Amino acid sequence: MKQADARLDDPVGGSLLLVGAMLLFSLSDASSKILAQSLPVLEIAWLRYLAFVLLVAPAVARQGLWSFYSPRPMLQTWRGLGLLGSSLFFIWALSYLPMADATATGFVSPLFTTALSIPFLGEKVGIRRWAAVVVGLLGVIIIVRPATSAFNPASAFPILSAACWSLAMIITRRMSGTDSTLTMLSYAAVVGFLALSAVLPFVWVTPSLEQVALAGFIGLASTGGQWLTVKAYRRADASLLAPLSYLQLVWSTLLGFLVFGAVPDHATILGAAIIVASGIYTAHRERIVAAERAAKRG
Q1: Which three-class secondary structure state does DSSP give residue 96?
Q2: In a domain, 210, yes or no
Q3: Domain of 92?
Q4: d(Cα 48, Cα 32) in Å, to the nearest integer?
Q5: How many domains are there within the chain?
């Protein structure tokens, strides 16, 4: 039987891995935004997952069917669907929104993670963490600006993407220590590829060689980001890593300016700052709660 990857106590290494993952995700997002100007979103996602499958295939070939061994295969399938939903909704968001706006709004995911940790991980969430959730949602409202002329209905896409991502991360935490990194990557690749292949004939547009190459880079960057994320969560606690995920906002803002000439407005900056502050406080509270639980067990 294939053994799961061992958990390590390496917070510095885990932090560096997540920083690298955030950069790769931002590069993937910028490339997806370029492709979204000429190709359907479902096709972009399919090309991305095709590259994902091709990258994972050699490792799967070496391991054989053990690559897909999991004591809870349905949970891995739901994780794969969560990652697929996050990818699709975010590419749709990039089709209509500046990178900084989409990324900042998408960072509501730690707030969803807090809520989902109750039914999925059996955690208790206190009043202070719920207050941080409410503050974070206020930041989202500032960015989205509902009931104003600046409101864009596409702002719902990064929120839906965040919800799907949070579900996938909750499952990642729950499966950590039981399934290997290869198993998680294999399920994510195959589930997403098969689901997208079923609808691809209805949206297909023949891409150019340049578009295929860019899609290959998207697959490489996103696969590398997922691999680094899984490795990071095996080395450090989620409460430590959560604040570092906000570096993606820095990368995305920089790439949005360099590639698309987009500069975030004051509302986006203010809303993003509130979301980041609430997320960091939530991670801080989770770290305190985890330490208290460890002390009681000791």
Answers
A1: helix
A2: yes
A3: 27-297
A4: 9
A5: 1
